[in-house]
Amino acid sequence: MAKKTKKQQEALKLVDRTKAYEIQEAIDLVKQTAKANFDETVEAAFRLGVDPKKADQQIRGAMVLPNGTGKSQRVLVFAKGDKAKEAEAAGADYVGEQDLISKINQGWFDFDVVVATPDMMAEVGKLGRVLGPKGLMPNPKTGTVTFEVEKAIQEIKAGKVEYRVDRQSNIHVPIGKVSFDAEKLVENFEAITDALLKAKPQAAKGIYMRNAAISSTMGPGIKVDTSTYVRR
Question: What percentage of the chain has pLDDT greater than the value 70?
């Protein structure tokens, strides 16, 4: 285990690891414990009471955060003809067909999100072995396989985030930057929390939202009290 720096040790002293904080207080603590010399990303982590091995308990989706993420997303679009022109006009960073497929197969990954029109998926699907492990494969559930190219690009640029439960029943989602106003981070956290609560599978038994925490890129995890949201 890597040895904690002096700044990280100081940040840890500010957090009561046994306490679940109200979201406003938790956000304030994240700001206080962000000691890096860059604008750290704030991430929310949720532990859910689901069994991701079962198809009816897998949770995956996407949403546009009310205040964005603070990160500029580089969007690659697989499209042809008029849809390619639409993608270029909407501000896509890269638009193409076989040319981009060849570049990716050669190890090029200078993009953050991939969008594809349905008629391109037969070819794009061949990239599954390289895009899949990086979480970049287009998927209809997250709105990245669509003929509504302009809408997809605008949402991504506006701060759309994807969420997916992992093998340990956790979900990790960026909710902004440390430089954001506290109120904006609170709004983003509450928006993703509400989305996850609405996505609760009928087959899930027992406590659904078991715990949640937020942290900055280099800061300690801070537990969040989600009881008020669960009771809504």
Answer: 94
pTM above 0.70, yes or no: yes
How far apart are the C-alpha atoms of 120 and 95, rounded to whole Å?
A: 12
> Is-contact 73 132, C-beta < 8 A?
no
> Which pair of tokens denotes residue 10?
């100081």
Spatial contact of 226 and 209, defined as CB atoms under 8 Å apart: yes
Other CB atoms within 10 A of residue 28 CB: 16
Give the residue carrying structure tokens 């406590």. Answer: 207
User: β-strand 60-64 against 41-48: which pairing, if any?
Assistant: unpaired
**Which two three-digit tokens encode residue 94?**
């890269």
Matching residue, tokens 């506290």: 182
In this predicted model, what pLDDT tens digit does every residue of 38-51 receive, in sequence order? Answer: 999 999 999 999 99
CA distances from 58 to 47, 164, 201, 204, 229 (A): 13, 8, 8, 10, 21
171 close to 152: Cβ distance less than 8 angstroms: no
Rounded Cα distance, 91 and 87, in Å? 7
Q: Model confidence over 196-215: pLDDT tens digits?
A: 999 999 988 889 999 999 99
Report which of 56, 83, 41, 80 is spatially closest to residue 200, judged by C-alpha positions: 56
**Pair 173, 192: CB distance under 8 Å:** yes
Side by side, which strands form the sheet with 94-96? Answer: 94-96, 75-78, 113-116
Phi, psi of 41 (to 5 degrees): -80, 140
CA nearest 71: which of 99, 115, 40? 40
